Amino acid sequence: MDFRMLGPLEIHENGRQIRITAPKQRVLLALLLLDANQVITEERLIDELWNGSPPAAARSSLQAYVYRLRKELAGGEGVALRRDGDGYRLRVAAGSRDVERFERAVSAAADIRDPCQAVPRLRAALREWRGELLAGIDVRSVADERARYDSMRLAALERCVRGELALGRDGELVAELESLVRQYPLSESLWGSLVMALRRAGRRGDAAAAYARARRCLVEELGMEPGAELQQLHREILEGAVTRPPDGSPTDGAEERPVPAQLPAGIADFTGRSREVGELVAAADAEESPVMLIAGPAGVGKTALAVHVAHRLRDRYPDGQLHVDLGGVQRASERPADVLAGFLRALGSTGPPPSSETERIALYRSVLSRRRVLVVLDNAADVSQVRPLLATGPACATVITSRDSLATLPVGRRIRLGMFAEDEAVEFLGRIVGGRDERPDAETAAEVSRLCGHLPLALRIAGARAESLMGSSLTMLAERLADHRRRLAELELDDLSVNSSFELSYELLGNRPRAARAFRLLGLIDGPDITVESAAALLGVSPVAAATALFDLVRTQLLEPYRPGRYRMHDLVRLYAAQRAGIDSPDELSGAVNRLLDAYRALAGHAVRVLTERSSEASSPSHPFAGAQEALTWFDAERPNLLAAIRAGLRSPECEEAAVATVRALTWLFRFRGSTEEWVRVNESVLSAARRRGNPAHVADTLDELGKLRRERGDLPAALAYAQNCLKVRQEIGDIGGEVRGHINLGVAHHLMGSTDEAAHHYGIALTAAEQAGDRLAQGYALANLAAVHREAGRYDDAQACNAASVKLCRELGDNPGQIDALDDLATTHRAAGRFGESLEALTGALEIAERIGYVTRVANLLCEIGETRLAGNDAVGGIAPVTRAVGIFGETSDRYGRGRALRLLGRLYRSAGDAESARRCWEEALTELTDLGVPEAEEVRVLVAGR
């Protein structure tokens, strides 16, 4: 994660910009970044955020800002925002702040006397500068630091331009110095440099005029004459003396010789890549004989970036620019000896080139040893092809592009070029499409960009097709690209083809059949990434063999290693891989998917046991998860891949049974971490599959899950219908244990819909059946629900007795979810009876278990229960922090219903605490969430908003 503070505050990660628009959050981040890796007390943060006049709820508001900021930064490499003592500490990786890089580069140049070495370092420092420190953020700490950094920049500028004057770069500096003296009109050093540059360039009159402007400014602003050095320059102008650059400077002439200019034409519609361009230009400045590599997959724009940067650097290499397309992955790539012969001719070598490659390399290096030449080696195949062609002269530079990472080649800057960020992709597409008949809206352009996977080659072809064949209609193009079966066919035009580009890379696997097979099978699963272990299951090989195959795919840029142990495939590459999988037999394909589902199902079973049972019984030396946190970490990382494998299984009749079984194995994990709309859709698909397969047990389990999912979203009629159908199936197959739980679920649905007598009837049946069957866990659940009936009737002692018995049973059985539910119900009984202390004690016990096992959905609900209890006990302020945290958790788990209800409660807490404005904001946000969902609670919130 890259934090840019020299100018408006910006955060960049992996080519995308993270935008934090809330003013207070931006100020908070700025303060934490100024003192990164140090603790800043709450008091200081509050004082700075509210300019010494904080509101009554400032501490709670600060906690909310910290929570939201932590969420924005979540997942950033090397970044962690943590509570530390009486304050907060933002940990960032070394070199991730531009202010740090700026200071380091200035410091590195401080003790270097040779301008040839000092100037590149100073220029590297100054390129970090986009404007005044944290522009637009005006608090005391920032203002103090702003003055310090501005002073550092001025000192660096003064020394840099003096160094460049010493190197004879007079003419190049005049325009820059004119701009600088307008920014710093009181800097005698900059005025002196401007006068000297003009004088050396032969512009005597302009130099005298510049001196006059400098004197006028200094006299008017400071009331003092220019210093001795500037006055001496003025006398030299009047006397007509002109000092030339020192002998032997880089501007000295040499014998007439050819100056090759082989760069391809600049890219007229070049877009984005500002970070990569900056890094490459900086590398050219900072090193002697720099070698820069741009590696990346097919169609990502490596050549475009190399040519663009080469044109940016061209003036720095006045002795010429060499360029060659080395052929890369094509069957007939260029031989180094042939390329050397062409380079030598371009550099003025007469006569036939030496016969041996070794002699050509030696002559090439000799010719470049005293010249400033830029060499661009495009589309390199491997290290052996590149090494002889490197420009080794001390004032030369080499830019290389390759699909291979050329890992053994020593380079000064290695950039792995990725896809465009969305804003870059949309901008690039807009530059291609003329829009004669339709002005494309941003949403349509973004959709086309997404369907192209933000791949520059695909975007160029798509834009050209829209422009030339579809009357510039991106809407028509989006409709055609939406069909994944023909998307690759749409991305072909003239001599450009995404499909052909991928095919060249795939053909490199011709002598590695295991890697080619891995590539095809990976195309079956449309998850975001894959681990070595999952790949081993898919391929039916050992992890070692799978790792070797994945490495071969990485070398050919068909797969990307983007996190330790994880690999991902671009969406369009996956479509191509799925096409190639047509050469494999149906049995091979279904066997691969079934193996992966079997592996996922086994791991899910282990994870659920760790989370729901006593840890001493669930853990063993052979268990894949050491504890609850490790199990949940696995599930969090694999959730989208699990769903992708299930989707793949449901697409094939031979894999349906394994897909259904895997969904059922994952049920508790989704309850722990929060369900998603996709989980609802998957269960609906699984219900149809289970019915097709004639498996009533799976049908009943799926009906049970769908009923609970609908209940969570406030759709009680649907929840009741699912519960009734589930109980009917349980009874038909004689599943006694399932019948007990079916009656409990049916009772809960009736209870929530206000049918208390009907609910009590089903709870009673469930309790009797559980006692007869000896199902003590079901007894515990039935007792907890019966307690709710007693509680609503005002029979608090009876309710508490049921609750206590339920807690005892669940504790004895070591059932973690059961204990949480039982303690939560006990807390509700205490609260209804006015025993707020006892209620909070029970809730604290439930929360501790839920947090320990990572049951985040219950954590969020328990935090809301704590808020309700605090509110009922006239401690609204004490309820704000836990409910604020709950709102964040519901947001992270995409539970809009839970978030809307939590916001409604948070508004009530703020109103009771006397903060009407915060209450109004919470209710307005809650109204948006609940209205979109179409639930009855929306009307209640609308009344609150209207009445305030």
Automatic annotation (TrEMBL):
Presence of the UniProt keyword Endoplasmic reticulum in the record: no
SMART domains: BTAD, TPR, Trans_reg_C
GO MF annotation, one: ADP binding
Residues within the DNA-binding region(s): 1-92
UniProt record, GO biological process: phosphorelay signal transduction system; regulation of DNA-templated transcription
OmpR/PhoB-type domain ranges (all copies): 1-92
Domain of life: Bacteria
Pfam families: AAA_22 (PF13401), BTAD (PF03704), TPR_12 (PF13424), Trans_reg_C (PF00486)
Assigned keywords, A-Z: DNA-binding, Transcription, Transcription regulation
Family: Belongs to the AfsR/DnrI/RedD regulatory family.
PANTHER family assigned to the protein according to its UniProt record, in alphabetical order: TRANSCRIPTIONAL REGULATOR REDD (PTHR35807:SF1), TRANSCRIPTIONAL REGULATOR REDD-RELATED (PTHR35807)
Protein name: SARP family transcriptional regulator
Protein's organism: Planobispora longispora
Taxonomic lineage: Bacteria, Bacillati, Actinomycetota, Actinomycetes, Streptosporangiales
